[in-house]
Every structure is written in C-alpha cells, then in structure tokens.
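USER: My hope is that you can spare some time for a protein that puzzles me. I am handing you a single protein, as its sequence and its fold in token form. Walk me, if you will, through where the backbone shape changes along the chain. The protein I mean follows directly.
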Amino acid sequence: VLVGIGILWLTIRLFLNWLLADKVVVLEDKAGMSALRRSKELMNARTEEGFWKRPKNKAALILLTGFLIGLGINLLFQVPGFALGLLEFGFVTAAVSGLLNIVSTSLATVFTATAMILFYYDIRLRKEGFDLKMMAQGLG
C-alpha cells in the first residue's frame, strides 16, 4: 500500500511539473528535456504567498474545474441519447449518443486548454514580468 501511495504521489508530482511542457514547446520554441525543465521551473515558481496561489495548486484546481465542467456537459448531452435509448431506435441512438459525446468532450477540452494557456501566461507575467518584456521589445 505504501509503495502504491508513493508511486501515485510521484506520478502526480511529475504530471504537475510537466503540465506546461506543451505550451513551452509551442510558445517558447523549446523542445525535449529543455521544455520539461522550463515547465518544472514555471510550476515551481513562488509568485504569491498562500496555499491556493501556488502554481501547482492553481493548476490542480483548473484541471478539477475542467473535469467537473466536462462531466456536467457530458451528462447534459447524454440525456437525449438516453431518451432515444428508451424509445429503442437502435442505430440512431448509438449515432446520436456518440455524436453528443464527441461534442461534449470537445467543449470541455476547449475550456480546459484555454484555461491552461491563460494560466501559463499568468505564471510568466507574475514570475518574469512577461508583459513588460513584450512592451519593451515593441519600443526597440
């Protein structure tokens, strides 16, 4: 049991450390291990005081919110498929349920991806004064 808890803790820790790696690859043009290191650097930055203001805790809260929104949208979109299932339309029920599942998953993914991109910029802004660097580059 302790080994299982240790493996789970390590997995969550690595996941949160490397959560911004895809944004770093696209927005900072880094790849491989340098993107993973940069993601870890951003996720471990101490930009504000307080438990819920730590980057890893904010990211976990964003992911949890995205999951709950996705779950709510999925349940809402499955009601028509369930109603068709009660009427026994067979193939139509499966097609409508599948289509609604794709739409609900897409909506939840868009929300979470957008929130994570804003989170990435928030960390860069608080840690590095990213907005001031961008304004200064426009002057020179």
About this structure: The chain is about 85% helix and 0% strand. The first helix runs from residue 2 to 17. The two ends are 59 Å apart (CA to CA).
